[in-house]
Write a structure and sequence with these properties.
The chain is of the alpha/beta class and about 130 residues long. Helices cover about 55% and strands about 10% of the residues. The chain has helices at about 10-15, 25-35, 40-50, 60-65, 75-85, 90-105, 115; strands at about 5-10, 35-40, 70, 105-110, 125. It has a five-stranded parallel beta sheet, sandwiched between helices.
């Protein structure tokens, strides 16, 4: 199975499900979500690791996560994350997301541009800026 083209960061997934993205961005994601988007295991943990006031709040997130590939950690991603952390002041989850994207040649979909833009060769797209 071929790898997907994009890696969806937690904040972009939450904005997508929460209806906080522009109409064009939603249409773009709707068009690529099943065929071209993956999620890192760290994003799965972040997305589902909150305690909602209503358990039914998990349903749209569960449905989203059923439609994408979940990428686990393996040695190449781990080593890349270590290198990223050594070279940049960045939170561990963001380093894992960046390492996953770099290792698998994926573009990160995120609104967290500031933390990711300092990592050389990492391709990022802000869904709020999709035209």
């Amino acid at each position: 199975m071929a790898m997907k083209k994009y890696l969806l960061d937690s904040n972009a997934a939450i904005d997508y499900i929460g209806g906080k993205l522009p109409v064009k961005a939603v249409a773009w994601l709707d068009g690529i979500i099943e065929a071209d988007v993956s999620v890192s295991v760290i994003n799965r943990i972040e997305i589902l690791g909150f305690k909602p006031s209503d358990p039914s709040d998990f349903i749209p997130f569960d449905e989203l996560l059923k439609t994408v590939d979940i990428i686990g950690l393996h040695e190449e991603i781990i080593l890349q994350a270590i290198e990223i952390r050594r070279g940049h002041k960045i939170k561990l989850p963001d380093a894992i997301v960046a390492a996953t994207a770099l290792t698998l040649q994926l573009t990160v979909i995120t609104r967290n541009i500031a933390d990711f833009q300092k990592i050389l060769d990492l391709e990022i797209v802000n869904p709020h800026d999709v035209i």
